[in-house]
Structures are given as C-alpha cells and as structure tokens.
Amino acid sequence: MQCEELAARLEEFPRRHFAYLPSNIEFLGNLTEILEGPRIFVKRDDQIGLGIGGNKTRKLEFLLGDALEQGKSKVVTFGGPQSNHARQTVAAARRVGLDPILFLFGEEPEEYTGNLLLDRLMGATIHFIPFESGAKRLEEAVRDMKSEALSFPDVSPQDSYLIPVGGESPVGLLGYVNAALEIHRQMETMGIELSHVVVAAGTGGTVAGLTAGFRLLGSGVKVIGVDVGALWKEFEPSIASSATATARQIDSEIEITVEDFLLVSGFVGDGYAVPSKEGVEAIRLLARHEGIFLDPVYTGKGMAGLIGLVRKGFFDRSDNVLFIHTGGVPALFAKGKEVLALL
Ligand SMILES: Cc1ncc(COP(=O)(O)O)c(C=O)c1O
C-alpha cells in the first residue's frame, strides 16, 4: 500500500489531535561513536506535547476519538500506580472534557510522586485495587479488573469508555500504524534507508502497531521489541494477533505472524519496574553523552536491549537503527534513589 492510501484510510477513523506530529528524529552521533556500531537515531515520542508526552498519546488520539463518537462522558483505565498510560489518559481526557477515572493496582502509597502526583494534579478520580500478582495469570487479573471497575457506582457501560492497560486495543494501535507511516515518510525525506526500529515492549501494543504499519506499507523495516517486563504468557503470538487485528481494520486480508517482528528478552533484570544495572547504564550513557533522559521502567531497559544487540554484533555497521523514545520520564523521579544506587 502506498503512503497516500494508508494516510487516507487512517483519516476515516474518528480521532482527536493531541500530539505534535511528526515527532522529531535526531541522530545520536555520540552514542553511535561510543558503541562503534550502526548509526543510531532516536524518535522523540517523549516530547510529543500533551501531559509530558509518551507513546500512549498517539494511541489516545484514536481511543478518545472513538469515545467521543460513542457519546461517552467518562474514560476509565487501568495500570500500576506509576502508569505513564494512566497519566496520559487523564491529560487527554481533560483536554476533551471527559471525566478521567483510574483503577490502579496496589495499595495507596503514602507519598504521591512521579506520575501519581501528576494524576492527582489533574484531578483524576483514583481507585486503588489490591492486586495479587502470584494468584492468577496477569491476563485474568486484568480482565477481572474490568468487571470489578464496572461494579463501582461511578462506572457504567452506558457512560464510560473503558481503555485496556496500556491502551492496547486495535483502535488504540492505529496510533502506531500512523507512527510507522510517519517514520517511513521522515526517513524518505532524510534520504536514509532504515533497517530496524527498536522499542521497549510492555503490553507489546507499540510493537504490534508499528509492525502492522510497516507491513501495510510493504516496508522491510524490522521492528524489534525489548521485553521490559516478562509479564505475559504467549507474548509473541499475542503481539502477532494484535498486529493482525489492527491491520485488518485497514486491509481485511492481511495476516501478521511472529516472523514479522523480533522480541528480545534478557533485559528485565529483577522484574518489571525494578531498575536494572544495564538499564541504568543506558540511562547514564544517554544523559551524559546526548543530554536525553530515559526512564528506569521502559526506555532505559529498551535502550539496554539495543546496546546489548550492538555489543553482540547483531547489526551491521551500515545499518540505520531508530530507537523510539516512548516517554516515561516521570518514573525517574519516583525511582530516583534506586537509580542512583546503580549509577
Ligand atoms: C514509557 C513507556 N515506554 C514503553 C511502553 C510500552 O508500550 P507498550 O505497552 O505499547 O508495549 C510504555 C507502556 O506502558 C511506556 O509507558
């Protein structure tokens, strides 16, 4: 499919514009030199505008477009207490006059820091829901959370638009189909042939949306997701089926398989949201050599994955690799002590 056709098909979906697009692409000359590897670029989805930015803003353009089209008055979503997705959902909801309601897994902390502080400043209704991670599969817990949310008096199917964890739905992922189109066009303008896009994978939605977008364009760019949580069973097949469901909104015949992207493991460290040695090394390198801040939960570990692949000789020196900075910097303030301990 040509760029113009994909752009026209995306125009058919309800959408609200929150982001400064296209987000910038910068060449990381110092990092490239230090690693003696491929040419590394960064796409600044962390500086996308609304509510300190991040990857969820792109998904929310389509999700809240859909919510408004359905005549909803409230937006309900889910996540950890430091969820970037929750923070960006609240910001977007406030922009368009919808009431934001959050269900956050865990106990209410004594101190409101990082994303939680921002949620509070924006006046979101926040419910804390204790989450027994070992008791059941995460997938089941997330599904139960939705029915639990619907049992609250301030949430009803009539007036509430429920957004899954991480905005991971075929409608939300159109935001990253659009990002693939944007990257394709930017690289064409820059006269650069891109070989790989690397991104942190949490729910895997960003990987799925990008893969769908590049496949729809018939592009050979390989999307690499760095698993930062090891949270999900059958992660790769579920990313492939999300990508297929997303792309089928545009091309009903397409089938996306696990061969269409790469998922890299080994960079979670001690667990999801626990700062890792390699992640903090990546944070330090980018801060000290490029003046760019990564976060300890997602982008630090994502960049650690990219660095690990370079050191393993995965890329050719002639490759052009684009890292997507998906945001998350508020978590740096919430986890400052742990990060400094590993610096
Ligand atoms: C900063 C940041 N980067 C990356 C991700 C991962 O994105 P996805 O859930 O689409 O895999 C998230 C999502 O939670 C995030 O907040």
Keywords:
343 residues, alpha/beta, Rossmann fold, 2 domains, 6-stranded mixed beta sheet, 4-stranded parallel beta sheet, binds pyridoxal-5'-phosphate
3D architecture notes:
The chain has helices at residues 3-11, 29-35, 56-69, 84-96, 114-121, 138-150, 170-190, 205-216, 235-247, 277-290, 299-311, 330-334, 336-342, and strands spanning 25-27, 39-44, 74-79, 99-105, 125-129, 160-163, 196-201, 222-227, 261-264, 320-325. The chain has 2 domains: 3-54 and 170-342, Rossmann fold (3-Layer(aba) Sandwich), CATH 3.40.50.1100; 56-167, 3-Layer(aba) Sandwich (Rossmann fold), CATH 3.40.50.1100. By secondary structure, it is α/β, with parallel strands linked by helices. The strands form 2 sheets. Strands 1-2-10-7-8-9 form a 6-stranded mixed sheet, sandwiched between helices. Residues 54-55, 84-85, 166, 200-206, 295, 298-299, 326-328 line the site of pyridoxal-5'-phosphate (PLP).
Write a brief structural summary.
This protein is of the alpha/beta class and 343 residues long.
